[in-house]
Design a protein that fits this description.
EC 6.3.2.2; Gln_synth/guanido_kin_cat_dom; glutamate-cysteine ligase activity; Putative glutamate--cysteine ligase 2; 14 helices; alpha+beta; 378 residues; 45% helix; ATP binding
């Protein structure tokens, strides 16, 4: 048996929140991706921790600080985007976010010149090269390590809610895939990506990481790319479920829903109440259903195998979480989830634009760019 890895969980204040948002850099005229991340990042320099590099040169990531409220985190993202725009506008480059770019070709994208990215591509080859995808990650502070795994398992019961609401990758390489979130199923092709193991005890996680390090699967814990994972370095749970969201309104709505869920489950633990769970086979099926059908998914809601339309489940959840949102100061952002229910998730809006324009996907890119500028679904 290999030696377990020691995973020290950093001290973190309860229910602090941070958001990471991956943005595509697209040509203002053609709508295709532009490989200008290096130009942007060189101009930013090391003085702005809110703007970061990513795997591909067509991407920059904006990140918030450690915030008390989702509104505060959204304001951080907004400031970072303004700074990026000051550099991209003169280059005739627009910002866009969705789970995938509707028509760009993965084979034409350049990888950031960094050893960890080169190692990833060398190991994962065709699948790694195909990772032309964008996501939104939400970190929520956990004050007690013993809460991390129970809350992570409980979040899998609402996985489909978050994935359906954020689904924004129906197109891939110029074709409609028939999926609401093609990104979700592509990303899980990487080793250590996809749904997490439902460990009961921290020692099991440490044993797993020890095995992965010993056998050379990973060199560091952050190479475990689960959809929901502990982030020991920050003292958070990191939800990596959501597709790239086109607008700040959607990013903060999804972050508020995640923030409220974690706090809700944390409060249940304080009261000594058992947290909801689903068996791994139901979690797997829910991921597939929400990736395939999005807002039309009939999801499995509990360990007993009961089912419900995801939009009905979301509406019920919003009512249940309203008092939590008041407490966390994100009632307005949580209520914005209703805007997504009303106007449709991004994959639905993208398909509607494609239909109106006879299947022309440059019109879809133009609509995503316009939504990004507007900050809300159009």
């Amino acid at each position: 048996m290999t030696t377990p890895a020691r995973l020290d969980f950093a001290r973190s204040e309860r229910s602090t929140v941070g958001i990471e948002w991956e943005l595509a850099l697209v040509d203002a005229d053609s709508g295709d991706l532009r490989q200008v991340a290096r130009t942007v990042l060189d101009a930013v320099g090391d003085d702005d921790p809110a703007i970061k590099q990513e795997l591909l040169l067509n991407t920059v990531e904006v990140v918030s600080g450690v915030c008390r409220t989702v509104g505060e985190a959204g304001a951080d993202l907004s400031r970072a985007i303004d700074r990026v725009r000051a550099l991209t506008d003169p280059l005739r480059v627009e910002l866009m976010s969705a789970g995938t770019h509707p028509f760009a070709r993965w084979a034409q994208q350049k990888v950031t010149d960094k050893e960890r990215y080169a190692t990833l591509i060398d190991r994962t080859q065709w699948w790694g090269r195909q990772m032309l995808i964008y996501g939104v990650h939400v970190h929520v502070g956990i004050e007690d390590r013993d809460k991390v795994l129970p809350i992570s398992r409980a979040l899998l019961t609402t996985f489909a809610h978050l994935q359906s609401l954020s689904a924004s990758s129906p197109f891939w390489g110029g074709k409609d895939t028939g999926y609401a979130s093609n990104r979700a199923l592509m990303f899980q092709q990487l080793p250590t990506a996809g749904l997490p193991f439902q460990f009961e005890r921290w020692e099991q996680l440490e044993a797993y990481v020890g095995d992965m390090l010993h056998t050379g699967v990973i060199d560091a814990f952050d190479e475990v790319r689960w959809d929901v994972r502990p982030s020991p370095r920050f003292g958070t749970i990191e939800a990596r479920i959501c597709d790239g969201a086109p607008t700040l309104l959607e990013v903060t709505a999804l972050a508020a829903l995640t923030h409220c869920l974690v706090e809700h489950f944390s409060t249940m633990l304080d009261r000594g109440e058992p947290l909801p769970t689903v068996p791994p086979w139901f979690a797997q099926e829910n991921k597939w259903r929400s990736a395939r059908y999005g807002m039309d998914a009939i999801i499995i809601t509990d360990a007993a195998g009961n089912e419900e339309l995801v939009t009905d489940a979301v509406a019920r959840l919003l009512t249940e979480l309203a008092p939590v949102a008041e407490r966390l100061g994100c009632a307005q952002e949580l209520d914005s989830v209703r805007v997504i229910l009303r106007k449709g998730a991004s994959y639905q809006r993208q398909r509607a634009v494609a239909r109106r324009h006879g299947g022309e996907l440059d019109a879809v890119v133009a609509s995503l760019v316009a939504e990004m500028r507007a900050g809300r679904p159009l």
